[in-house]
Amino acid sequence: MPASLPAAPASRARFGGLDGLRAIAVGLVLCYHLFPGTLPGGFLGVDVFFAISGFLITSLLLRELDQTGRIRLGAFWRRRARRLLPALALMLLVCVTLALLVGGDPLVGIGAQVSGAALFVSNWVFIARGTDYFARDNPELFRNTWSLSIEEQFYILLPLLLLLLGRLRSRGSRVLPLAVLGVASAALMVGLSLAGLEPTRIYFGSDTHTFGLLLGAAMAALLHGGARRAIQGPARQATTLLVALAGLAILAWLACTLGEGSPQSFQGGFQLATVASLAIVWAVTREGSWAGRALDVQPLRWIGERSYGIYLWHWPLLIIIGSALGAGTPSWATGAAALALTLLLSALSYRYVEQPVRRLGLRRSLSLLFRLGGREPRRRAVAAVLGVVLLATVPATAYAIATAPRVSSAEAAVARGQERLDAHRKDAARDEDAGSASSEDDADGDATGGDGAALAPEGTDISAVGDSVMLASLPELEAHFPGIAVDAAVSRSMSAGVGIVSELAAQGSLRYAVVVGLGTNGPVSAEDLEALRGIAADHPLVLVNAHGERDWIPGVNQTLADFAAARRGVVVADWDAAIAASPDALAGDGIHPEPAGGELYAAAVQQALDELQQPDEAMGFALPRR
């Protein structure tokens, strides 16, 4: 979280190169969020900020401790509040108001989100709510404030810890506790990942994701008191430049290759990114460093100075613009619009809110801004604009919190199908208890006419196994195929579906035609498809492809198409093409169908079943195509 700017006057406290490094870090995050797929590991930009913040804030506190013999806790926390709260409050008020105008999913859980952000506990709020940081469907409006919360929790404890360590005389005795705590946090991240803990808990946890701040603090303690001497001689300049370039190369490699939420990211990726970041910080902050001068160039310095605001605004604006434009808008267009508005609002916030409050304090800034009789036209204009913004956004935010929807449109769509499925299961259990369950058609029936030609299967001839997309489409599937047997659940993978089809076959309840709609929640392997085909044996098989902005979905759809093209009796229901032409039939997440989308889902399955009746498909299911 790019919040840590020097608290002391720039002439005494500025470290060369850090603004440029902030610009690189926020650039990684922007690419990751605004333009998905360009930098799959761009989320590591936050860890670069952590390393910078830990180093910088600790350096400033140690400088104060040396100069005055103490750390003024009240003054330090007041400076942090001046630096962070005005921009955060403005962003929260404006973005909640914009979300209210757009309506719908961006407002779900908005009260808890605003409270978590304002109290700097967002990361734990999201953990409690079961938030998935790496999911782009149903995203929380202020999800990005998790890192700000971790930093603020660190800033509360850091000066207290430094006061204790300040009593120790040797540099090593100050460095060691900070380094041990940092290594322990990094090791805990690895250990919990190896134990299989849910990735977002590891990512959001203050205990598992504070090592960048702590190791940055340890390096500041190590270099404090003369160890940060000016570089002398071309050889040492070349050494620091190579260190900086090596660190940047490592960050670039990780940003291009590391997968979001992957075991590799938790079991070495974040840790390596932190080490690379600290190496760069060491190289660029040496006095007279060539690397530091290189990173101080414009526009990197301009971006770095405003990186806090850029980070704050970019994510909620992306969600609001995406919701306003709809699921059919190309992601690059949404990202470009969010980027332009982010740069504009962060620049205005920096000039007219952050800098005045940081220099003068909140009360004095407001007094000067709204002083009656002020003759400066620009001041009057700024005061008028801020006054209008506050008068409009404060009541709008209160209203939005009071009237926010409890569930998202996607959750409502899935719940609609789940209610229907639960009702069927209750009816089936009641009939079984009463001993009146009627027998189904022969599970292995041929569904053929007297001349051996295949007939179009009806609902009672179909077994369907799927994920939450099929579940959301259940009412329309049942209306289109009365009597269809559906087994669908949230977050189901293809490998789990293979096991379910196997159980149905073993029980003798697998019907003539098998419809499988799995692929939304992860990659599909050819081995799973082969196993599915082997279990289905001579049952015609319909594979429903997937739709949504998830990295693996194009590969899933290609795998399904290739598999079906090479085998008789296997066809693809092209749900992706059907819904792509009608994006408004999807819920706000762009994945789960509303009732109109459920109709398209059922129609895609019907089209695939019709294709199965063609002679080339209906005869010789076990034979490959020529």
Write up this protein.
This protein has helices at 10-13, 18-34, 45-68, 73-102, 110-118, 122-129, 146-165, 171-194, 199-204, 211-223, 234-257, 263-285, 290-295, 300-305, 307-325, 331-360, 362-369, 377-403, 409-433, 468-472, 474-480, 494-506, 526-536, 553-565, 575-580, 595-612, 615-618, and strands at 462-466, 485-488, 513-517, 541-544, 570-573. The protein has 626 residues and is mostly helical. It has two domains: 10-406, no CATH class; 411-618, SGNH hydrolase (Rossmann fold), CATH 3.40.50. A five-stranded parallel β-sheet has the order 2-1-3-4-5, with helices on both faces. Helix 5 runs antiparallel to helix 6 (122-129), helix 16 (331-360) packs across helix 17 (362-369) and helix 22 (494-506) packs parallel to helix 23 (526-536). Mean pLDDT is 85; it is low at 3-12, 436-445 and 448-454.
Characteristic key phrases:
626 residues, mainly alpha, Rossmann fold, 27 helices, 5 strands, elongated
The overall pLDDT, averaged over residues, is 85
- Indicate the low-confidence ranges by residue numbers: 3-12, 436-445, 448-454
**Largest β-sheet summary:** 5 strands, parallel
Radius of gyration: 29 Å
Numbering strands along the chain, what is their spatial order in the largest sheet? 2-1-3-4-5
Structural class: mainly alpha
Q: What's the helical proportion of residues?
A: 55-70%
* Overall outline: elongated
The total tally of domains equals 2
User: What is the overall number of helices?
Assistant: 27
